[in-house]
Design brief:
Blueprint lengths: L3 E8 L2 H11 L6 E5 L4 E3 L3 E6 L3 H13 L3 E8 L4 E6 L5 E6 L14 E8 L2 H10 L4 E5 L3 E4 L7 E6 H8 L5 E3 L3 E5 L4 E2 L5 E4 L7
Parallel strand pairs: 1-2, 4-7, 8-11, 13-15
Antiparallel strand pairs: 1-13, 3-12, 4-8, 5-6, 6-7, 9-10, 10-11, 14-15
């Protein structure tokens, strides 16, 4: 089974990115950054999600992100599936913070249960087949709308969503050009998927 050790965000200022992610989310080395001037405009075709246990933790993390300089794309609120909000980090990365619970069971702890990388794809069937062939078994699948892969315990989770639908989900235009400004660090060797998302071997990447 292919695992994802970390993701590397390509940013203008890695020091500022490290400061933001440490202050806002307290993330360790599963989210890394490196300097890049690769041109990119608009939606970069992916989001990262922090899954937490209750609304209080969503509110705490969204508030910390905004205090650290993030922009609110969708305020935290209840929905049919739970409770969540969307922010955009100063480096341009879009983050969803979500809980399947609509009620608090205790005070906020800011504990993050899972990190999920959600890729926006053009051809769901083709991308699903590509990743299965690269060692990622399907864990959940909802036709042509959503696919989630099993990536092993402690690993960053990987899921696919139609690009236009993903942009709508987080409240931005689907239009965008240039680099994704993202590298996925796994254990199955370097490759690039059908939508241009680049993978590298985890040993080749440097931490924040």
């Amino acid at each position: 089974m292919t695992s994802i050790e970390s993701v590397t965000l390509e940013v203008d200022d890695p020091t500022a990115a490290h400061r933001f992610y440490t202050s806002a989310f307290g993330l360790g080395d599963q989210v890394r950054a490196r300097a890049s001037q690769a041109p990119a405009t608009g939606f970069r075709g992916f989001t990262l999600s922090l899954v937490v246990s209750q609304p209080a933790d969503v509110n705490a993390l969204v508030g910390a992100a905004v205090d650290a300089g993030a922009a609110t794309l969708k305020p935290a609120a209840r929905s049919l599936w739970g409770y969540g909000g969307v922010v955009q980090a100063p480096d341009g990365t879009i983050w969803q913070i979500a809980s399947s619970s609509k009620k608090d069971t205790g005070p906020a702890t800011r504990r993050i249960d899972e990190i999920v990388l959600l890729l926006g794809v053009e051809d769901m069937a083709g991308s699903k087949r590509f990743y299965v062939e690269h060692g990622l078994p399907v864990a959940k699948s909802f036709g042509s709308k959503y696919v989630e892969f099993a990536t092993g315990p402690g690993s960053v989770k990987l899921a696919l969503y139609k690009r236009r639908g993903l942009a709508k989900l987080v409240g931005v235009s689907p239009d965008g050009t240039g680099s994704h400004r993202l590298t996925i660090n796994g254990d199955s060797g370097p490759f690039t998927d059908p939508d241009g998302f680049a993978w590298a071997t985890a040993s080749e990447t440097a931490s924040l």
